[in-house]
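<instruction>
Derive C-alpha cells from the sequence
<data>
Labelled lines for chain and fold
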Amino acid sequence: MTRTEAYETEVKARFIKEPANMKLLVVDKLLTGYDAPPCTYIYLDKSMQDHALFQAICRTIRLDGEDKDFGYIVDYKDLFKKVEKAGAVYTSELDHSAGGAYPEILLKDPLDQGRGRLDDALETLAVLCEPVEPPKGEPEHIHYFRGNTEIPTDLQEREPLRAALYKATVALIRAYANIADDLEAAGYRAAGIAGIKNQLDHYLKLREIIREASGETLDLKPYEADMRHLIDTYIQADEARTISPFENLSLIDLIVKTGIADAIASQLGTIKENRDAVAETIENNVRSKIIKEQLSDPAFHAALSAQLQEIIEPRKAKTIEYEEYLQRIAELARQAEAGQPDDPPAELDTPGKRALWNNLKPGQGQSEAVGAEPKGYGDPLDRALELALKIDAAVKQARPDGWRGMKAKEQVIKAALFGVLQDMAEVERLFLVIQAQPEY
C-alpha cells in the first residue's frame, strides 16, 4: 500500500476498535461500504440522495452496547427532506419473497421517541422506589437502598439496588436533556412539565443522598490535579467554587480533619435533625471503608467491623447517649482512615509490615505450627513481629517485576513465603495480604 492507504487503514481500524483514541474523523469518505458501530455523530455538509444518503445516515445509527440507543445526524444541507425518498428507494429493492413481516424502513418521529424514553425513565424509577415504606421520606429511602446497619452484609447485598437507582437516574437525565427544549411540542401540558422537573430534581437529590449514606460518593483524592480539573470543569453542572478547604474530602476524611460536628453540619445538613439518619449514614460510610480496604489487612479490618457492631447495638437500643455515640464512632472513623492500630512497634514503619504483623498476631487464623511459641521467644507478639520483618525482607528480595497476575512470578513470592513460614496454608493466607499491599 501507499503511505496514504496505510494511514487510512490504520485510522479506520482505530476508529472502530479504539474509539477513545480516535474520536473525530474529518473526511469526505467512509460514507458507504464502511461500518463503525461506535460512531455516534455524523455531520452532513454535502448534497447526497438515494442510496448514498441512506447509507451515510446508517454509519451512525448502528447500536453499540447498552450505552448507545441512537446516533446523531447534524444536517447542514437540509437533507432530511430526502430521507423518506431514500428509504423508499432502498426498500423497493429488498427481497419480499421469503414471507413474514416486510423489512421496510420506518421513520419515527423524534418527539414521539423522546417522550417515550422520558416516560419510560420516570416509570422505571417509580417502580424501583415502589417498595420503599411509607411515608417514603429520606430515612425510608435510605433504609431501603442501604439496608440495616446492624447487619454487616446488608450494605453489599443491596448494592445492585443502588446501582439500578444510579443507572436509572442517569437514563432519566439523558431522556430529559434530549427533549427538554421541546416538551410542549412533544405533547406535555404546563402542569405536566412542572411535575417532570420536580421529579427530576427529586431523583437527583435522592441519588446523592443514597450515595452519601452508602459511602459511595466520588473521592477525588486518588486523581491527579489535572484530572480533578477535568472533572470539575466538564462533569459538574455548576462552575467550580471553593466552599471550604475540605470540599473534596469524603465524610470519613472530614470527620478526622474537622471533627464530627463540623462534618455533620457540612455534609449531612439536610438530615442533621434526624439523629438516626445521621448515625446510619456515618456507620455505612465506615462500613464501606472497611469493606473496600479489608483485603489489605483482613485482621485489622475484621477488628474494626466488630468494634462498629459494638457501637451500633447500644445506639439502636438507646442505651448510650447520642454525644457518647458520636465520640465513639468518630474515634472508629479515625482508626479506619488511619488504616492501622494505635502505637504499633517502631520497627513496623510501612503499611505492609504493619499488615503482616496484624495478621500474624495470636488468634488471627494461623496454623498451630506457625502460631506456636518457639523457644527463645517469651512473647507471641514478639514472635509475630519477628516473622513479619522476615517475611517483608524475603518478599522484597525475591519479588520479580510485574508479578501480580502472573502465575509463574507469583509462585516466586509464595516460595519466598514458604521459606520463612514452612506452612502452605499460611503461605496462601498471607499471600493475599501481600498482594493487596502496594509496596510489594
User: Anything to note?
Assistant: The CA atoms of residues 108 and 114 lie 10 Å apart.
